[in-house]
Write a structure and sequence with these properties.
This protein is an all-alpha fold and 215 residues long. It has a domain of 108 residues: Orthogonal Bundle (Recoverin, domain 1), CATH 1.10.238. It has a two-stranded antiparallel sheet with strand order 1-2. InterPro entries: EF-hand-dom_pair. This is EF-hand domain-containing protein. It comes from Alexandrium andersonii.
């Protein structure tokens, strides 16, 4: 019995072409173009960082400027809504920026709790209540940070509600601060008067001693 046709039949033309193409060396021109394109890609990836960097910065500035404008617009809307005076908003902004350590100038709720605790002591129950209230009126999660608009909203809420008599606590604190400031000014004036009297007494003493010495 002879060999089967499949074992002796020549390979198909397509398979021959495939094999020849896989074994065919790459032409110098093709290899050169591949090397050139790879070289250009590398140059672009390296030099692109310096060539395109100014434009990249410009785009990022535009994005940040747009974010700032949107944030400022939200803040303006909140300022109109809460009804604080211009001076009050200015003081609140100064306080907000002093207390916020976030790179995006936001204030974490725990930091705001520390500010409230300087006005009046907070129990654990009051702290939890404050977190829930702040989250409800700002629609910001308890673990998230507040922007200035959120901060104003929370301040307006606790003042309007007189949350745990915070208004009375604030007035007591302000009265104590004013009293301490007045005492400090009075002490400063007294020290200044004593200093003037001491200098005058010293001059008078020196003058008398000089006259006695001459006599």
């Amino acid at each position: 019995q002879g060999p089967s046709p499949s074992s002796t039949s020549p390979s198909s033309p397509s398979r021959q072409r495939s094999g020849s193409e896989s074994l065919q060396p790459t032409s110098p021109t093709h290899a050169g173009s591949q090397a050139h394109s790879g070289d250009v890609g590398r140059r672009t990836s390296v030099s692109g960082r310096s060539v395109d960097f100014p434009e990249f910065l410009r785009i990022m500035r535009l994005i940040f400027d747009q974010d700032d404008e949107e944030r400022l617009e939200r803040e303006r809307d909140v300022v109109k809504e809460v009804g604080f005076s211009r001076e009050e908003v200015k003081e609140f902004r100064r306080l907000f920026h002093q207390a916020s350590f976030d790179a995006e100038k936001r204030l974490a709720v725990p930091e705001l709790e520390k500010l409230i605790a300087r006005v009046m002591p907070l129990t654990a129950a009051m702290t939890q209540e404050f977190k829930e209230m702040a989250s409800m009126v700002t629609r910001v999660g308890e673990e998230e940070a507040l922007d200035f608009g959120n901060f104003l909203t929370v301040m307006r809420t606790i003042l309007d509600r007189n949350w745990h008599n915070i208004n009375e606590a604030s007035e007591t604190l302000l009265a104590a601060a004013a009293k301490a400031e007045a005492a400090s000014r009075s002490e400063s004036r007294a020290e200044s008067k004593v200093s003037v009297m001491s200098r005058g007494w010293s001059k008078l003493t020196v003058s008398k001693l000089s006259m006695l010495a001459k006599g």
